[in-house]
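Usage

Read records sequentially. Each one opens with the input sequence:
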Amino acid sequence: PFKCSPIAIPGKVEVEDFDKPGQGKNEDGSSNASYGDDSENHGDSDYRKDTGADLYKKATGVALGYNQEGDWYEWTVNVAKAGDYTVFASVATENSTSSFSLSVDGKVAVEKVALSGSSFDDFSNVKANINLPAGKHILRMDVTGSWFDIDYFNFVEGKDAADPENKGNDNPGQGGDNPGQGGDNPGQAIQTKIHMETPVLGAYDVFDVN
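and closes with the structure output:
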């Protein structure tokens, strides 16, 4: 693990804290590399600049960007209890063909999460259900569709759990970081850029200024 101890689940996995790159081979002959990426660092962050990871400075912190199909990253995690979890991924993209999958100890746990968006600076959460075994394991993300940025994974206990950060999808009436303002135009009561998960069925209320 990058910070010496496995990352606790339930909890948040910051993508920039992927495991330390290993050297050589494990005893069973398998590689102990912790990520797969091209050798060029395309990012603008000094965080972990000794690696080839494409880390960018974003308003939310450090995010992993320039993700291309075939790239992958691994994190050592410690799952408190076996069972169903909901994983929320904070992502941004300008494409409709981006995607990733998740595996645990080499076994696919979440197949191809589809992503879409209109800006690499507009992060919203996508979610998927995942079943996790208890104890220490290797969580891996494989990029299956190019060009998206990702900030973190947040694992919440239970299937179809609510997003604890209520980010981007659950309350479209709030304008980003300032709930009283309408997104890009503070004079608007309703934000003009609403990003929702697809497929999704939602309900909302509209109020006048009174």
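Summary fields computed downstream for this record:
- The mean pLDDT is 84.
- The first strand starts at residue 7 and ends at 9.
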